[in-house]
Amino acid sequence: MKKLLLSLASLFTFFGCQNKQTAEPTVKVAQQTLIFSSNGKVINFDLDNKKVAWEYTSAVDEAGNRNKFTFDETTLYMPFESGKLVALDLLTGKEKWSYTAGQSGMMDMAVGDDGSYTEERGEPYFMGQPLQYKDKVYMVSIGGGNDPYFYVINKGDGTEFKIEGIETKYNLSQPVLCQEMVFVNSGIYLNKYSLLGTGTSYGMYDGITFDSPLYVQMQSDGETLYFGEERGMFYAIPFNEDANVKGDNDDIMDPKNNFKDNLSIYKWRYQSKEYPKLATNSDRNTALYNNTFVVQVRKGDSDEQALIGVNTKDGSEQWKYGLGEEIVNWHKSGERLIGYTTKQIFVLDLKGKELETYAINEGFKPLTNIEETKDGQLVFLTTQGVATLDKTSKQAKILIAYKVKEEYHNTAYLKYFKN
Hints:
- InterPro entries: PQQ_b-propeller_rpt (IPR018391), PQQ_rpt_dom (IPR002372), Quinoprotein_ADH-like_sf (IPR011047), WD40/YVTN_repeat-like_dom_sf (IPR015943).
- This protein has one helix at 2-22; strands spanning 33-38, 41-46, 51-57, 70-71, 75-79, 84-89, 95-100, 107-111, 117-121, 131-133, 136-140, 149-154, 160-165, 176-178, 181-186, 189-193, 199-200, 219-220, 224-228, 234-238, 268-270, 277-278, 287-289, 292-298, 305-311, 317-323, 329-333, 336-340, 344-349, 354-359, 371-372, 378-382, 385-389, 396-401, 413-417.
- It has 419 residues and is mainly beta.
- Strands 22, 23, 24, 25 and 26 form a 5-stranded antiparallel β-sheet that branches. It has a 4-stranded antiparallel β-sheet with strand order 3-2-1-35, with no helix packed on it.
């Protein structure tokens, strides 16, 4: 009996650790809230009172900002292309602190209309999404024309805790937490860092890489890391409690003990036969829930794309939602997968079943991901402002007027919080 109680306690401890690492923070808001970021701005929309609650602007980044924010229970963490990272009070928009990277984005000199020299923004410095965990914020730069770095910032005051160089500038995804380690996909490299920002090994041969870039958002359930290559192969790597691989080759001097040759480290590998390539939209989104890893793939060089739900236990294909065109954007919102093409919005349940589709009116073209409110309406940003789409009438309307610029790289991002 004592052994049984001990086993149950261990089981609850394990799953508690899993949830702590992967669960989204709970934010308490008085009104239904929609937070939006783009063009150097972060805007908090009060949906119940149909107004802008607060707005934050980074003046040097108004020309564009292809970054996403992250948040905890009280604070929003927003990076900008200039190399600035700010912490904002989620309810008031008040700046708690601002951190500027030591090597900011490259600035090019140009001649203005009056003949004077002005500065134009060159290559961006930050272009991803931070990870927040415990008392730290983790962020990776693309360099802004300088060397790229992995950053560890103190959440309390925005001071720099540690920076460490990283191999490539292709750092467009959010770092991921797994077995109390921080993982970063940087081009063909899969890097692992301690919570204090120190690069660590896998218990494998030094200097190992993948054959093609890992251009997809990684996911983790706390024990296993899920990710994919540009060529369309997806992987699941389970780690032991020391965050080392579980393969049958522990010889760190063996050149064959690498990601390509030591297949024993994988729980599974998956590549769709019908859609063998990774979709190359700017978002590179994935989703992980229950026992499903959702990926976006395409048919060779065709525009035909699909969302596929992969079983996280064995890598088998659970479901497939194919479209004859490019999927511009999709996200998990509550108990739905919501996305759109250039022609229609689609809503799926978490098993990939199509629930509704809506034709896109040119005046209500989405510029962001689409969220579902507690009332079952779909909400998103258009060039005219916050739009809602009623599922019954299938009609969209502007809820809050607010002019938004449509960018060539349409990476504007929003998050809905219910009261």
